[in-house]
What we know:
It contains 10 helices and 6 strands. By secondary structure, it is an alpha/beta fold. It has a 6-stranded mixed sheet.
Amino acid sequence: MRPRDEEQFQQQGLDFAREHDESKAEMLRPGAKDAMGAHADSGQSRLLDDLDTIDALREVALDCRRCHLRATCKGVVFGEGKPDADLVFVGEAPGADEDRLGRPFVGRAGKLLDRIIAAAGLQRNLVYITNIVKCRPPENRTPSEFERDRCMPYLRTQMRLIRPKILVSMGAAATQGLIDADARITRMRGTWQEWNGIRVMPTFHPAALLRDPRKKAPVWEDIKMVLEAAGYEVPS
Length: 236
Ligand code: SF4
């Protein structure tokens, strides 16, 4: 390559890198326009406010590009279950199995959640299961506050449409996203909280139970409180 060509080539590379950084920064800027051309915060919220079915919301969410997580995951894991469930279980974010299958809580922790739900005398299709962040963070890292905030309109809209009696917040990240950014799950679990007018019971994440089976007993106590508050029969 001649020196002049090389100079131009390098300049083009620098221009491309700068444009890429600028467009990424624009996408992540609060108030920026999102992929649907609406202002990400106000416009998107208005768009979601107009939706009146969970299926319509799912359609919008599956096309979401509101944060950078969608660039590295296979797809949006929206959530699943009874569209008017009394009980909603909310976790942190999809993992590798969930990302691959497009369904929440289907890995080892999900199997344990299924057992907890069955022990409560319920079935998976009688409750609703989702996460505060709908796309898998790289390496299963904890979602950032920014990612939680960007994704929160989906959970808010899901709950407006489902109108559950009780939300079970599983793990520290979900509880910090819903209740208090400084929440310690070891202290807050088993205590009633409130989010957007819905009663919330924080408890340990099923993955924590896999690491430390001693946490099963307190989770079961929390679930029994949830069943009683929801008017369900409480297994002895
Ligand atoms: S994590 Fe949420 S806000 Fe980010 S792209 Fe996925 S669905 Fe959209």
